[in-house]
Amino acid sequence: MEKYGAGSIVVSDYDPNWPALFAQERMRIGSALGASALAIEHVGSTAVPGLPSKPIIDLLIGVASLEEARQRCIKPLEGLGYIYMPEYASWLPGELFFRKGPPGPWTHHLHMTEPSHPRWEALVAFRDYLRAHPEAARAYADIKRDLAAASKDNIGAYRNGKSAFVEETTAKARAWRAAAGDR
Fold first, then answer.
1. How would you classify the pairing of strands 108-113 and 57-62?
2. How many folded domains does the chain comprise?
3. Which of 2, 118, 158, 169 could form a disulfide with 151 if both were Cys (CB 3.0 to 4.6 A apart)?
């Protein structure tokens, strides 16, 4: 069982400060990475107004080359307090994953990938769909709260419990984007 940070999984009510926390972190990362960061997006539940979430800001960083990023970006991000998690490569292929904050609860997750990688489009499409479809966001909130209560500190069970909803909603999001001409 993969344990969650410092104890039980907590899904908090939406915090209107989350976008400002993202913007602040985006500025710090942009300064540290310079031209290596092609784009910095706020993804995950904290990026969806009104959506309850684990209070962790998820950032998606686009880089031209993951191999180049491995050489140039890890040290500057470590200087900002991020911890590179190479063991996540098998779970998140084509991505560099970092955490920031005390060893649980984490305050930030950073996902770094090339914008052409399918995960980039999936994360952005899922976020945009939830922003535009409050009923889907409410359904996701209910699932997350139920899973947090049932999973206690088992983050693997929590993550796996959400996967069917995330996959189905991402498929809907892709169809929605395609129908609208890629929003």
1. parallel
2. 1
3. 158
